[in-house]
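Example for tutorial group B:
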């Protein structure tokens, strides 16, 4: 491995024209819109056969994907008789959203997947216009049941249905029955019948009731209606929603579960005793981002109250600050952990998706638990991913001065797992947080500063999916700033230079990281897979997933570098990188 002096071609221009570049970026972001919404309807593309050649350069190697066509939300993940089940929203006829059914895959490790027949598809009056998202619950006696949203008319009226396995002794649960006493829940008086969907996993309490949440909104106020049932069949709406928040719009795909305050082990969804907190996550239809709060669930009153350390609204905490939506967790009883899956949507145009013949992936399943601070969650890729690790390279105690970069050679940079710990001797050179930046959100600040503008402590990090002459690259990096009486860490995953195509949405995804800087170290792990980079900063405290479409940094022409563009010397204390093999993928 060789260290080179890094000359950033456009650095001077960008610095000089900083304001111009920033304005241009904002315009481009606006013109190029945002991530794809699941309900955007492109009728002309909804039912088109896939192209014959599916091995597109941007197809991922180890992320979950069916052979072809469109996918969105993960649905009803569960562990049953030694098998993991993942259902997902799927268009069996095309590469854009539409004709929605529940497709079904099974696995013994959540990395290798085998696709089964469709599990739930429109066939009855109560779901004839679509089988939308939902969850699974394991009832006493180890009996799984699925709750999902059925669309019953052309106006998108939504009801909640259930489905049960045809044969409980089949660990693959290949056939599902939708009993005739469906729907279980109609939108009652006062409920907006086209904004009433995505039932959660049910939880049970000693009072003999099952409880579920259903996402909704009223007059712009996002909310989760609470329903109770003794027999899982007759559901009564509670007088008040479990929780709601003004001006947040429709809450899709809610998820509600307990987390332990004492350990990283997961808890069964009905767990209520002991030193626990609850997490409520909602997916915001209006912003296409999710946020979660950590709080207390008062069971007697059936109220959830977020802690005052959790922002309840558009600026709340996110599992992931990038392409990540409609996520869902489940309790994995085989390893006592809670697992999180999310849909990572494309940032390319629908016409490109049609040409590729596919759109959408699921992120690598992550273990999720409460940070010792009690104020946020922590996530880490499941340990099973490590079975795909092949060639390995290692680098330690390597210094990066201003403008240095080092290529990480010896692995397939297009499909890799990289773990690195950076250290710095002091924070004295940290750039003061300019008062005019204070009101910027992290993403705006990242697009303003970027990876190429010289800083104090940082920007430093990884350049992933980089072409040989750096015409294209996706940097994942940190910059430490000095605020009034503390240091602030900004983490960015910046798609701005990932490809030359104008039509692609290329945001500078970013977040501030609540990192402990006592030891003057910051860690980063990135999972790189052709058109996706999933990154975990500060041991999983901040996660960002970017979808990118390089034309030059493809296949064997992709490179990986570590870099520093700050005046403080950064040391790569330890870097391990592996090529990742292809698992069995549907
Ligand atoms: N996707 C589903 C809905 C859900 C949305 C439809 C979220 O049930 O609200 O495909 O992406």
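The residue assignment follows.
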């Amino acid at each position: 491995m060789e260290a080179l002096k890094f000359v950033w071609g456009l650095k001077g221009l960008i610095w000089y024209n900083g304001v111009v570049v920033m304005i241009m970026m904002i315009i481009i972001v606006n013109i190029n819109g945002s991530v794809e919404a699941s309900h955007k309807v492109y009728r002309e593309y909804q039912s088109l056969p896939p192209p014959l050649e599916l091995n597109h350069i941007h197809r991922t190697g180890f992320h979950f994907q069916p052979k072809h066509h469109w996918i969105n939300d993960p649905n009803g993940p569960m562990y049953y008789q030694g098998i993991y089940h993942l259902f997902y929203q799927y268009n069996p006829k095309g590469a854009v959203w539409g004709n929605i059914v529940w497709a079904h895959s099974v696995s013994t490790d959540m990395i290798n997947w085998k696709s089964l027949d469709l599990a739930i598809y429109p066939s009855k009056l109560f779901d004839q216009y679509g089988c939308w998202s939902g969850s699974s619950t394991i009832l006493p006696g180890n009996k799984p049941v699925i709750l999902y949203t059925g669309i019953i008319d052309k106006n998108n009226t939504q009801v909640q249905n259930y489905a049960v396995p045809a044969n409980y002794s089949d660990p693959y649960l290949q056939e599902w029955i939708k009993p005739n006493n469906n729907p279980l829940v109609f939108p009652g008086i006062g409920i907006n019948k086209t904004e009433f969907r995505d039932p959660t996993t049910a939880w049970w309490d000693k009072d003999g009731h099952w409880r579920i949440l259903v996402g909704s909104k009223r007059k712009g106020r996002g909310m989760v209606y609470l329903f109770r049932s003794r027999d899982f069949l007759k559901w009564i709406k509670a007088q008040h929603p479990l929780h709601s928040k003004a001006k947040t719009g429709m809450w899709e795909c809610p998820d509600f579960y307990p987390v332990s305050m004492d350990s990283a082990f997961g808890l069964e969804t009905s767990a209520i005793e002991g030193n626990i907190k609850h997490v409520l996550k909602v997916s915001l239809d209006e912003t296409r981002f999710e946020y979660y709060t950590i709080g207390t669930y008062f069971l007697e009153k059936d109220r959830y109250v977020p802690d005052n350390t959790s922002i309840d609204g558009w600026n709340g905490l996110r599992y992931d600050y990038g392409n990540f939506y409609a996520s869902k967790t489940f309790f994995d009883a085989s390893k006592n952990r809670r697992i999180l899956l999310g849909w990572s949507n494309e940032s390319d145009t629908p016409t490109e998706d049609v040409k590729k013949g596919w759109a959408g992936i699921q992120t690598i399943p992550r273990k999720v638990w409460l940070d010792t601070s009690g104020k946020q969650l922590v996530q880490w890729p499941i340990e099973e991913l490590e079975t795909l690790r092949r060639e390995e390279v290692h680098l330690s105690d390597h210094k990066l001065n201003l403008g240095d970069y080092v290529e990480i050679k010896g692995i397939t940079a297009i499909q890799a797992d990289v773990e690195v710990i950076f250290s710095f001797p002091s924070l004295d050179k940290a750039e003061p947080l300019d008062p005019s930046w204070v009101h910027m959100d992290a993403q705006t600040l990242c697009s303003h500063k970027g990876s190429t503008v010289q800083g104090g402590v940082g920007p430093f990090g990884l350049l992933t999916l980089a072409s040989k002459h750096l015409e294209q690259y996706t940097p994942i990096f940190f910059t430490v700033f000095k605020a009034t009486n503390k240091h602030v860490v900004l983490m960015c995953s910046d798609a701005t230079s990932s490809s030359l195509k104008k039509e692609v949405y290329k945001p500078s995804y970013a977040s501030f990281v609540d990192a402990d800087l006592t030891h003057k170290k910051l860690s980063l792990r990135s999972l790189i897979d052709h058109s996706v980079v999933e990154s975990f900063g500060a041991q999983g405290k901040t996660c960002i997933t970017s979808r990118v479409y390089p034309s030059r940094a493809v296949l064997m022409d992709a490179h990986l570098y570590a870099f520093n563009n700050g005046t403080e010397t950064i040391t790569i204390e330890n870097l391990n990188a592996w090529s990742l093999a292809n698992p069995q993928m549907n």
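Residues 1-33 have pLDDT under 50 and may be disordered. Compare this with the pattern of hydrophobic and polar residues in the output above.
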